[in-house]
Design goal:
With 367 residues, the protein is of the alpha/beta class. It is 22% helix and 13% strand. Helix 4 packs across helix 5. The structure holds zinc ion. The site of zinc ion has 3 residues, from helix 5.
């Protein structure tokens, strides 16, 4: 069990570090490889390992839509996978670097299993600093109401922050690039992209949904995947696919690459389907725990959902200047709250040592 936890721990860290071992990273031998990769012409490239990636300008893509970091590209070249197991025992003791901002955070101890939900591998390319969003002008009142409550639920329980840019430009007026933002729109279905994709990305909400539905779709937009698609879910649940219509069975495919998960499967996750979802015969569960019991699926963010988000995001207050001002409550990855001095220390770290924001420049930001 310890080995498994250690492996998962390394797994989670390897996505944003060159390797799990501080001193002797196998990838350090590959010095200059970035230039080698960049010297290829655009198009499909077969790597040393046989894996195929697509180069578009300075970016490399794997399996169609997955953008690769330099570390992942090197691992894929060398090992044929973005996941590399490091046998070093020492690695589990150190390594507390914030995945998106490369700043130190206090991560959980290796020997404490913190349940967390399951999401995409966080990189600066697919996470948000602050989630810019707009309400579609035609959004119905009932939808806007549940979305507002869902946004408030996310903010009250996690470090994820949203900025309401409804009615504002969607393209930067000075530099001309498209802002990444969510647009909440009326739909007959509920759906969302996973993570930040760049430019406009719709969050589709059907009529007369629960707040839980909006919490779930926003969860996708910040990077969460479905809990039952975890790579290790078969250790936790029994799946009866014969009770699922064939064209819905893909909903239960496992995600085995490019993910970020630590700890056991979280039955209470708002990203977890209920035992009877998609059932042809509604009296027979599609999923059960190993002991045969069932669950209904979460309606609010679980401890694991929160922990996933709090491991990745930092809660900023919307400002018009470049000062990175933190919200009064900053969660740690284990969902405890930073002390006042820890918060100030982090704020100083984010601002070249200056813990005091200029007394100006906060933007109105109402949902
Ligand atoms: Zn979903």
């Amino acid at each position: 069990m310890k080995n498994l936890r250690y492996f998962l721990y390394c797994l989670s860290l390897l996505f944003f570090l060159s390797a799990c071992n501080e001193g002797d990273t196998p990838l350090d031998d590959q010095e200059g490889s970035q230039e080698n990769f960049l010297s290829y012409e655009d198009g499909l490239i077969t790597l040393k390992s046989g894996a195929i990636v697509e180069k578009k300008g300075d970016n490399f893509y794997w399996q169609g839509d997955l953008m690769l970091s330099q570390t992942q590209l090197e691992a894929l070249d060398e090992f044929g996978d973005i996941i590399v197991e490091d046998p070093s025992e020492a690695a589990s003791q150190t390594r507390n670097i914030h995945p998106v901002y490369n700043i130190p955070v206090k991560a959980g101890e290796d020997n404490v299993a913190v349940p967390r939900a399951f999401g995409i591998n966080p990189t600066p390319f697919n996470m948000w600093a602050m989630v810019r969003f707009v309400y579609s002008p035609t959004l119905t009142f009932d939808r806007r109401n549940i979305i507002r409550q869902a946004l408030q639920h996310w903010e009250a329980n996690t470090n994820v922050r949203f900025y309401n840019a409804t009615g504002q430009p969607t393209v930067d007026p000075v530099y001309g690039f498209a802002y990444p933002y969510l647009e909440f729109v009326n739909s007959t279905v509920n759906s969302s992209f996973v993570g930040r994709i760049g430019g406009r990305q719709a969050v589709n909400i059907a009529a007369f949904q629960t707040v839980a539905v909006a919490i779930h779709e926003i969860g996708h937009a910040i990077g969460l995947l479905h809990e039952q698609s975890r790579f290790d879910r078969d250790s936790f649940i029994n799946l009866n696919l014969s009770n699922v219509p064939s064209d819905n069975r893909h909903n239960f495919n496992k995600r085995t690459t490019n993910y970020y998960a630590v700890g056991p499967l979280d039955y209470n996750s708002v990203m977890m389907y209920g035992s009877f979802d998609f059932a042809i015969n509604p009296s027979i569960p599609v999923m059960t725990r190993k002991d045969g019991t069932t669950w209904t699926g979460g309606n609010v963010l679980s401890g694991g959902d929160r922990s996933w988000a709090n491991s990745i995001y930092i809660p900023y207050i919307a400002r018009s200047d470049i000062y990175a001002e933190l919200a009064p409550v900053v969660f740690k990855p284990d969902n405890t709250i930073m002390s006042a001095s820890e918060r100030l220390q982090l704020q100083a770290q984010l601002n070249n040592g200056n813990p005091n924001p200029p007394n100006c420049c906060r933007l109105p930001n109402n949902f």
